[in-house]
C-alpha cells in the first residue's frame, strides 16, 4: 500500500511539474539564457578559470574545461572555448584600467545569472518589487558573482578528486583485478554527479527571490542532475551523428554552444518547477525576499494604477 502511494506521488509530481513547465514557456526562457550565455561566456570562463587555477594553474583548468566541453560539442568547439579565454585575458597598463576592466568583467559574467534569476523567479511566481530600487540590482549582481566563484571552487574540487581517482585507478589497474578497478569508474561518476547536484542546489537555493527549505531543494537538484547526465549523453550523440553546426559554417561552433546551453536550461527549469511543485505538495515553507512580491500582487498593483 505504501509503495502504491509513493508511485502515485511520483506520477503526480512529474505530471504537475510538466504542466507547470509548459505553462511557463521554458523554450522562450532557455533561448534568453542561451543568448546571455554567449555574451557572458568570455568573462564567465575567465573568472572560473582564474579561481580554480590558483592551485592547478590556468592552463590546466582551461584544458580541462575545453576537454569536457569538447566531449559534448566536438573538439573544434573546445578549441574555440580556449581561444575565447585567451582573447578575454585582462591586459592592462594602469590601476584605473585594471579597475574598469575588472568591473566590466564582473558585469559581463553575471549577465547570464541575472537572466536565470528572472526565469526562476517566474517559476516561483514572484517578481522583483519595483520599489526595491538599485539595492536589489546590486545584490543580484553580488549573488551572481558569488555563484560564479563557487563554480570555480567546484571546478577545483572536481579536478582534484578526478585526478586523484584516475591516478589511483591507474595504479590499481597494474596491481589488482579488473572488476575492482571498474568500481572506480562508478566512484568517478558518483563524484561528478554529486558536484553537479551541489551546483544546481546552490542555484535553486540562492538565485531566486524566495527563501526555500533545503529539503525541497535537494530533490529538485538531484532530479536535474540525473536529467543533465542523460541529456549530456543524448546531446553528445546528437552533435556527433547529426552535425547540426554544418549548416552555419564558421559560426557553427557558437551555434552548438547556444544549443547546448538552451537544452541545459530546459532541464534546469524543469528541475526548478519540480522543486516548486514538491515544496507546495509537502508543505515546505516558501517566503519571499524583502526585494520581491507575489506575481499576482505585482500585476494587481500594476493594473490598479492604470
UniProtKB/TrEMBL annotation:
Name one matching Pfam family.
Answer: Virul_fac_BrkB
Bilayer topology reads:
Multi-pass membrane protein
Q: Which residues form a coiled coil?
A: none
Which UniProt keywords are given for this protein, alphabetically ordered?
A: Cell membrane, Membrane, Transmembrane, Transmembrane helix
This protein's major location comes to membrane
List where in the cell it is found.
Cell membrane
Q: Does the keyword Phosphoprotein apply?
A: no
The record ties this protein, via InterPro entries, to: Virul_fac_BrkB
Sequence intervals crossing the membrane: 33-57, 96-116, 137-161, 181-204, 216-240, 246-272
Offer a single GO CC term for the protein. Answer: plasma membrane
Name under which the protein is recorded: Uncharacterized protein
